[in-house]
Amino acid sequence: MRARVALGEVLDWYSEAMIELDAVIARSGQRPTGPRGGVYDNALFTDEVGQLLVYVPVDEPPRHGRVHPVELAAAQLAVTVHCGPHTDIDVTYGALGAWVDAAGLAIVGPVHESYLLGPHNSADPETWRTEIGWPVETVETNDRTESPAAS
Question: Is residue 38 packed enough to be buried (19+ CB in 10 Å), middle (13-18) or exposed (0-12)?
């Protein structure tokens, strides 16, 4: 499911979208083949409104109402895992951003989140694990080209 959402409405929209996705997938007789995830437009954080995409991977993506198949483009991601509730996930984002900058990389696309363990797995937020990945590319400098391997 995809929509343009205001920052203050993200949690409510996400909850409703996942309920709808789960219902459509259940009606189709499918089972998830991997962790659910989301792709969040950088404008959401800079302009407080942006495009969101939430998904549940399945073998035969169903199409019903707002639910439609999507294929995520391949990307080189700088990745980290946030452990625990999302109340302080901004700290993990900050640490990843600092690493990206120190590694001489540039963020070139929307952030990807994979919910390895989340509310759909456990009511205990301390057990949640969220993988955060930013699409990155090497930054050209006057002296050299920096890359993760060169850092």
Answer: buried
For residue 69, the tally of other CB atoms under 10 A from its CB is: 10
Average pLDDT of the residues of the chain: 91
Residue type at 23 in one-letter notation: A
DSSP output for 84-136: S-GGGHHHHHHHHHHHHHHTTEEE-S-EEEEEEE-TTT-S-GGG-EEEEEEEE
- Helix (H/G/I), strand (E/B), else coil: 140: strand
User: Cα angle at 53 between 118 and 83, to 5 degrees?
Assistant: 25
Structure tokens at 57: 């991977």
d(CA 144, CA 53): 36
Report pLDDT digits (tens) over 5-14.
Answer: 999 999 899 9
